[in-house]
Write a structure and sequence with these properties.
The chain has a single domain, classed as 3-Layer(aba) Sandwich (Rossmann fold), CATH 3.40.50.1580. It is built from 5 helices and 11 strands. It has helices at residues 70-79, 137-149, 171-179, 192-198, 222-246, and strands at residues 6-12, 23-28, 41-46, 49-55, 84-93, 103-105, 108-112, 154-155, 159-163, 184-186, 202-212. Strand 3 (41-46) and strand 4 form a beta hairpin. The two termini are 29 Å apart.
């Protein structure tokens, strides 16, 4: 059921549940071999480009990170024609200089999840997908440039440690992740980015820092987190709006050929 001229997908994270930055066109329900996606996919128009928007946690944030049907979400976006995905993810900072309100265009991840279905290839054929560099370099460059253009504090690199959730880390765990060289921590990046690679989609993630993780001896109130979250959401909309104008019509990366040397 591929949509004509639909190429770019947006996966909204915590706080980003509706496609209000776009001109809404229609909602579509996509059926997948892996069950239902998190919600209906909204097909919208932005600057003459069709955009598919999917809220990762559902439009009312009813799906916790460890229960998101990541396979269905990625499959559904590809099914309707998406070739590039820009994802949002709320994170805690593991570095003093990565501050609440800053954005990080991720370049690496560390997986600490335990129970998630993380491949489309469960039998019949074996796939060893390469994720040495797990994010699309072309999309990353666009997002970094877009952030600079709108004056947002954007870090051009960041390693994201993905924990299972829904609980937060202990102080000992948080300090350990810092020792490992992780920069931010969250619960949703994995396996979303790996499944996108298996689907031969370009994928990049904008990590939006809401607070410092528990390694830091800083008291963080819910009010402060929500204030930062609101700022992050508005800046994410501006960043995506600018990035959509900068993304070339043709892909000039290797994401579309990810399976070429991966299948046994």
């Amino acid at each position: 059921m591929s949509e004509e001229n639909l190429e770019i997908g947006i996966i909204g994270g915590t706080g980003i549940y509706d496609p209000s930055m776009f001109m809404e066109e229609k909602n579509v329900k996509v059926y997948t071999p892996f069950g239902e996606p998190s919600d209906l996919i909204t097909i919208s128009l932005h600057d003459r480009r069709k955009i598919a928007f999917l809220p990762r946690h559902g439009k009312n944030h009813t799906i916790p990170p460890h229960k998101v049907n990541y396979r269905a979400n990625i499959w559904a976006l590809k099914e309707i024609g998406v070739k590039r995905i820009i994802a949002a993810s709320a994170v805690g900072s593991l570095r003093e200089d990565y501050k609440p309100g800053d954005f990080v265009i991720l370049h690496q991840f560390i997986d600490r999840t335990k129970k998630r279905a993380d491949t489309f290839y469960q039998g019949g054929r074996v796939c060893h997908i390469s994720v040495a560099d797990p994010f699309c370099p072309e999309l990353r460059k666009v997002l970094i440039k877009a952030g600079e253009n709108i004056g947002v504090a954007v870090h051009s690199e960041g390693t994201y440690v993905c924990i299972e959730g829904p609980r937060f880390s202990t102080k000992s765990e948080s300090k350990l992740f810092r020792d490992w060289g992780a920069d931010v921590i969250g619960m949703t990046l994995y396996p979303e980015c790996v499944l996108a690679r298996e689907a031969e989609l370009c994928y990049a993630c904008v990590a939006m820092i809401t607070d410092y993780d528990v390694w830091a001896k800083k008291t963080v109130s819910t009010r402060e987190v929500m204030k930062t979250m609101k700022k992050n959401i508005e800046n994410f909309k501006k960043l995506v709006s600018r990035a959509l104008k900068m993304i070339p019509s043709q892909r000039d990366c290797t994401c579309a050929k990810a399976l070429r040397d991966a299948l046994v």
